[in-house]
Write a structure and sequence with these properties.
The complex is a heterodimer of chains A (676) and B (481).
Chain A: H1 20-25, H2 31-39, H3 46-61, H4 64-69, H5 72-79, H6 88-111, H7 113-129, E1 134-138, H8 142-154, E2 158-159, E3 169-172, H9 179-184, H10 195-204, H11 209-225, H12 231-238, H13 255-261, E4 265-268, H14 269-281, H15 285-289, H16 295-321, E5 335-337, E6 341-347, E7 356-360, E8 377-378, H17 392-411, H18 416-429, H19 431-445, E9 459-460, H20 472-482, E10 489-490, E11 493-494, H21 506-514, H22 528-540, H23 542-556, H24 562-566, H25 570-595, H26 598-602, H27 607-617, E12 623-625, E13 630-632, H28 635-639, H29 642-648, H30 655-661
Parallel strand pairs in A: 1-2, 1-3, 3-4
Antiparallel strand pairs in A: 6-7, 8-9, 10-11, 12-13
Chain B: H1 5-11, H2 21-30, H3 34-44, H4 50-85, E1 89-97, E2 101-108, H5 121-128, H6 144-150, E3 161-167, H7 173-185, E4 197-201, E5 204-210, H8 217-220, H9 226-245, E6 248-249, E7 258-261, E8 266-269, E9 276-277, H10 291-299, E10 311-313, H11 334-337, H12 346-361, H13 372-394, E11 397-401, H14 413-421, H15 425-428, H16 433-445, H17 456-461, H18 463-480
Antiparallel strand pairs in B: 1-2, 2-3, 3-5, 4-5, 6-9, 7-8
Classes of the chains: A alpha/beta (676), B alpha+beta (481).
Chain lengths: 676, 481
């Protein structure tokens, strides 16, 4: 530090600094910070301090376990220091209290109609009263605010950009002060220290989540009075800290106090979110079935629906409330959260690993998800594979867009806010993609029919899956989609056979072949299958020559001198090497041709082809030998290997089989049964 | 372009045995060598080819030639082995290649020396060729040369063809033994491809099987009438009934493993490389429990009483569930996908159902199923969340799915069949009662619960198969038996 003296209150480590406890928890201040402080004038001094503070806060926000794990999730949260989102502890409480009780409630709903009715009643009540509400968002992150305000407006309420008398509800992410506090607030320097007085009351009221925080704050503020804040001890005790840096508003200027004074309701952000959840969760059901006489049936139906909606709701809750893996009910250490549409099949008794897990990324607004789904395809094609669109540019456009998107998503910082925004977008777009396959087919129908197409072929035309297919709609859809006469045969053979890599559009196909370089698919974002396929094509086409070279190099130059060669662009290398081998093998094969028996005699192919033939024969066949229990790089090499030969020549290995084979001999004809 | 099945087929781990046979059969049928066939394809692609045409053309030829050359070498090696053992087969071509074996077509040069009870051809020939031959009913005991001569109109040089299955030397003796043993057990089942003989030369095991004339499924599945379907499935279910009666699960029922000859209206089941005896290597699965005890177990299960998961464990130390999953993608029954540990012969019935769905929906393959998960999603797309959840619970698993295209109730199979026929609206509304009957039959095959799924015997006794088809096939059966 410099000799320049900093006011005591601003020195984080000063014994009587209000931030002492916090600062102590922070890691050592970095050199940068010190230097920054040196350079700064007095005016700016609070800044580094705050920096330190915030760092401390972010460190503390995460539970020790989380901290230790340094999960990506945790880091995401740490980054968001700006507008004080709900702290881990709050979230935990909420997750524990809100989510659990909600779920419980919903579980019970299935059993009891009253509970469901209560929820409906509650919904009704809020639906009615919402239009009168005027919200003011305070200390709420911008993106969250936008989202909330959109939602709030959809229910008829209004958002006020500025705090005014008109406001009826203040939504904050900060802890809400108590009434008693607002009274005392004027007397105390920092709001947080007021909590001591309210501690007893806080315990009785359990509804306000901020109160729960308060208990810890009070604990903390108590310790502050002892001047010796044993941070580590507190950490052990609580696990999670909430050290919100109060805005240094001198008491009653705080908007929350003002709101209290003005008789406005103050909602915590979480409360609004919970309301949002509940309001949208038994959707329509409440309204449409409210007048239904057969209550029990409705209740059952609703209960079932809930069950169905459970997963999606959970996902949303997670997005809002943070991962629920802090939930004690989940014993397993860490979860990889589902982000998109998922399939999850797990052991009922949780004794084994999940049987199937896959999380498909959310499709963009104009995309179909990557998972298998029905497509309209012409006869002979797999209905789960999108039929190649004939117009190449359509595909190219699509691919380019996807590639761009992918690139964008790679660049985009994965902040939580961003995730939320994306999710929101995806959610709003969710209804769109489902209809898409059909649309595309219609589109494709307008494409000019290739001349080779024989006759109109009826198309497989499932309805847009999401519209829960009334029997009426498919036939209509069918009629719409019948039109395109498509080429059903490729070279006299139906294109969809078990062996066809069906996801390949003609555009991609032509790309694969046309690109002489070794990266046919790289120009477009391609699906997994395409990617795999690309590899195969490579292996089979440009591959053999290449591999051949490698093996040759290996044999010639085991010291790895060929490595330098490997850096030569593959295509060029191939060409050069191929030429060499060409000349070399040409002779060999022609010789062998002369010597060879009938087989070659039958063969009327050109010499040049013969050469290639020999070239590719050396294509190594990797695999696994069950007998040697080892993987091999080349079948032909392996089976003449010492280990394998030893196995082959050990009679014990074949004892049982031989016994069987002895029964399988071909019986000769009885000599007298025929003329032989 | 790029429609060469070769490379892909080689990559496909599930293509075994006769998988490639159709290609050859097809080319035979078309009277083209495979090479020429590929060349033809380039023409259909039109302008797209232009500058690349020469290159890709060369490549495909190259592929073919390469295959020929190496195949010839392989065949020569095999012939050496034969010679060493005093056997005489003239190798003709490779007709199939898979993970565990390669199958060649060959001419049985010493056919006449052996008892050939396995051979259905002469009998069939008698039955199918012109009446004058009928009187030679007891052809078996007659001089073969006469018989061969008499059939000269049918085939030009009366060669007796066999399929030679070269089981890779990297396959364990256990696996080979299993396959041969099961085939040996099944001898006498007319719908199962019999084993002529098998022998071992050092580590090379070779099985000789009859070469059964058949057509590529892809050539005929679209033109099938309901009657054709009945005949086809009657034949297939007869084979399965025999196999299942022996307590054997084939595990790999698919069109390429059921060699069907439209003319003779008969098929044989081949490739028992994945087959196993029912109950071998199986352990208890919830699906074996009585429904009530299963229900209580499900209700008291751990996962059931947990909140719906929002993620899956990152580092999961638990063991994974193990079960035999052998089979071909797209044809695996749901219980196989769910790793049921007590799989039964019913998994074959599901596969038959998939074949039937393929035919009725005129879409091949019907399921793409790049992997088990996609297979599950595809099945779930049809059957819907609710049924899948029940199906999963049957095997002690919880099914959660948030994929929007997987509906709650899915689609009825009749709907799917209806869309795919997509008959012009004028015809479309009222489907054939026969088709409806077929769909009903299909529903019993594609039943998610293996216990409720029809057995092969029940299928043969069902109205759909029993009625008119019986009268037609009975004489044939008599003939064979």
């Amino acid at each position: 530090m410099t000799s320049r003296r900093v006011p005591l209150s601003n020195v984080p480590n000063a014994a009587n600094s209000p931030f002492r406890a916090v600062a102590a928890a922070a890691s050592k201040r970095s050199r940068d910070q010190l230097e920054a402080q040196e350079d700064l004038s007095y005016d700016y001094h609070p800044h580094p301090k705050r920096q330190a503070l915030e760092e401390a806060r972010t460190n503390l926000r995460v539970s020790p376990r989380k901290q230790a794990l340094q999960s990506a999730e945790g880091r995401l949260f740490n980054r968001r220091t700006a507008n004080a989102p709900p702290t881990a502890f709050e979230r935990k409480l909420l997750a524990a209290r809100g989510e659990r009780s909600q779920q419980r409630v919903e579980r019970q709903e299935k059993a009891s109609n009253e509970a469901l009715d209560t929820v409906r009643q509650w919904q009704k009540h809020y639906k009615k009263s919402f239009p009168g509400f005027i919200f003011y968002f305070e200390s709420v992150p911008e993106d969250v605010r936008v989202r909330c305000s959109r939602w709030v407006r959809s229910l008829g309420a209004r958002e006020e950009k500025f705090f005014s008398k008109e406001v009826t509800h203040v939504v904050t992410s900060r802890p809400i002060p108590l009434d008693s506090e607002s009274r005392d607030a004027t007397d105390l320097v920092t709001p947080s220290s007021t909590s001591t007085s309210s501690q007893s009351t806080a315990q009785t009221r359990t509804i306000n989540p901020s109160l729960l925080d308060r208990q810890h704050e009070s604990f903390q503020s108590k310790s502050r009075f002892t001047f010796e804040a044993p941070v580590s001890k507190r950490a052990q005790l609580n696990g999670i800290h909430d050290v919100e840096p109060r805005k240094m508003n001198a008491s009653n200027t705080d908007i929350l106090y003002r709101a209290k004074e003005m008789g406005m309701k103050t909602w915590h952000m979480e409360k609004l979110q919970r309301i949002m959840n509940t309001m949208s969760n038994i959707p329509n059901d409440a309204q449409t079935l409210a007048g239904n006489n057969t209550r029990s049936r409705t209740a059952n139906a609703a209960g079932k629906m809930d069950k169905e909606a459970d997963l999606s709701r959970m996902l949303r809750n997670e997005r809002l409330n943070g991962p629920s893996d802090r939930d004690a009910t989940i014993a397993l250490s860490e979860l990889i959260p589902f982000k998109g549409s998922c399939l999850y099949i797990r052991d009922m008794d949780e004794r084994s690993k999940p049987i199937m897990v896959r999380d498909y990324p959310k499709p963009g607004p104009n995309e179909v998800g990557e998972w298998p789904q029905f497509h309209s395809v012409s006869v002979g094609k797999c209905p789960f594979v999108e039929e190649p669109v004939t117009r190449a540019e359509l595909v190219a456009r699509e691919e380019a867009r996807r590639a761009k998107e992918r690139a964008a998503s790679r660049e985009a910082p994965r902040t939580r806010a961003a995730t939320i925004r994306e999710d929101a977008e995806a959610e709003s777009a969710r209804s769109v993609p489902q209809r898409r396959p059909l649309e595309e087919i219609k589109d494709a129908g307008n494409a000019p029919a290739p001349p080779s197409a024989a006759m109109p072929i009826p198309a497989f035309c499932p309805p847009p899956p999401a519209t829960t297919a009334r029997p009426g709609s498919p036939s209509k859809a069918a009629r719409d989609a019948v039109i395109p006469p498509r080429p059903k045969l490729f070279g006299g053979e139906p294109a969809a056979s078990g062996m066809q890599p069906s996801n390949i559009t003609s555009a991609i196909r032509s790309q694969m072949i046309s690109s002489t370089a070794a990266q046919p698919g790289a120009k477009a974002g391609t699906s997994k299958e395409v990617h795999g396929l690309k590899r195969k094509v490579l292996e089979k086409n440009s591959g053999p020559a290449l591999i051949n070279i490698h093996t040759r190099q290996k044999s010639i130059d085991p010291a790895g001198n060929g490595r330098a060669e490997r850096n030569i662009p593959a295509a060029r290398q191939t060409r050069r090497q191929a030429q060499e081998t060409l000349i070399h093998i040409d002779e060999e094969s022609t010789q062998s041709e002369e010597e060879e028996d009938v087989w070659i005699a039958e063969d009327v192919r050109s010499k040049r082809q013969q050469v290639r033939k020999v070239l590719e024969k050396k294509d190594p066949k990797p695999g696994y030998c069950e007998n040697c229990r080892e993987k091999y790089d080349d079948f032909d090499d392996h089976i003449v290997g010492r280990k394998h030969r030893k196995f082959a020549l050990t009679p014990e290995n074949w004892k049982d089989l031989d016994q069987l084979l002895s029964q399988l001999g071909r019986r000769l004809k009885e000599p007298d049964s025929d003329g032989f | 372009m790029a429609k060469r099945p070769g490379p892909i087929a080689e990559e496909n781990p599930f293509l075994r045995g006769t998988d490639l046979a159709p290609v050859t059969a097809l080319s035979e049928k078309l009277g083209l060598s495979p090479g020429t066939r590929y060349e033809e394809q380039h023409d259909t692609d039109g302008e797209d080819v232009s500058e690349e045409s020469q290159r890709s053309g060369d490549e495909s030829e190259e592929d073919e030639v390469e295959v020929d050359e190496s195949v010839q070498e392989e065949m020569a090696k095999l012939e050496d082995i034969f010679e060493e053992r005093g056997l005489r087969y003239r190798m003709i071509d490779r007709i199939g290649e898979g993970t565990f074996s390669t199958v060649y077509k060959a001419e049985d040069l010493h056919y006449e020396y052996y008892q050939n009870d396995w051979d259905i051809e002469p009998k069939d020939a008698l039955k199918w060729t012109s009446p004058p031959f009928k009187r030679r009913r007891n052809g078996e005991s007659q001089s073969s040369t006469t018989l061969v001569d008499s059939q000269s109109q049918r085939r030009q040089r009366q060669p007796r063809y066999v399929a030679i299955k070269k089981i890779y030397v990297t396959s364990s003796p256990m696996r080979i033994q299993n396959e041969l043993e099961l085939l040996h057990d099944l001898r006498g089942c007319k719908a199962v491809c019999p084993l002529i003989t098998a022998f071992r030369h050092q580590d090379q095991v070779v099985a000789i099987l009859p070469h059964f004339r058949h057509q590529d499924f892809r050539m005929f599945y679209r033109g099938m009438t309901v009657f054709d379907i009945k005949i086809y499935f009657r034949s297939l279910f007869e084979a399965l009934a025999a196999v299942h009666k022996h307590g054997i699960i084939h595990r790999d029922i698919k069109p390429t493993n059921f060699l069907y000859d439209i003319d003779r209206q008969r098929g044989v089941l081949v490739d028992f490389g994945l087959a196993e005896r029912e109950g071998s290597d199986s352990s208890h699965c919830l699906c074996q429990d009585h429904p009530t005890s299963r229900k209580t177990k499900i209700e008291s299960s751990k996962a059931r009483n947990q909140p719906i998961p929002t993620g899956f464990p990152k580092n999961d130390p638990r063991p994974s569930r193990r079960a035999n999953r052998a089979g071909t993608r797209g044809f695996r029954a749901p219980e196989v996908l769910l790793k049921c540990t007590a799989q039964t012969t019913k998994i074959d019935i599901w596969s038959v159902g998939v074949i039937m769905l393929t035919i009725l929906a005129q879409r091949f393959p019907f399921f793409n199923s790049a992997d088990d998960i996609e297979a599950m999603i595809e099945i779930a797309t049809i059957f819907g969340q609710q049924k899948m959840r029940q199906c999963a619970m049957l095997h002690g698993t919880m099914f959660e799915c948030t994929i929007p295209t997987v509906g709650k109730h899915g689609f009825a199979l009749s709907q799917i069949v209806h869309w795919s026929s997509a008959r012009a609206p004028d015809e479309g509304e009222d489907p054939d009662p026969e088709v409806r009957e077929a769909v009903k039959f299909l529903e019993q095959c594609l039943e998610l619960d293996p216990r409720k799924r029809m057995s092969a015997r029940a299928a043969l006794a069902s109205d759909f198969l029993a009625k008119e088809t019986l009268s037609d096939t009975e004489p044939e059966e008599m003939d064979v038996l």
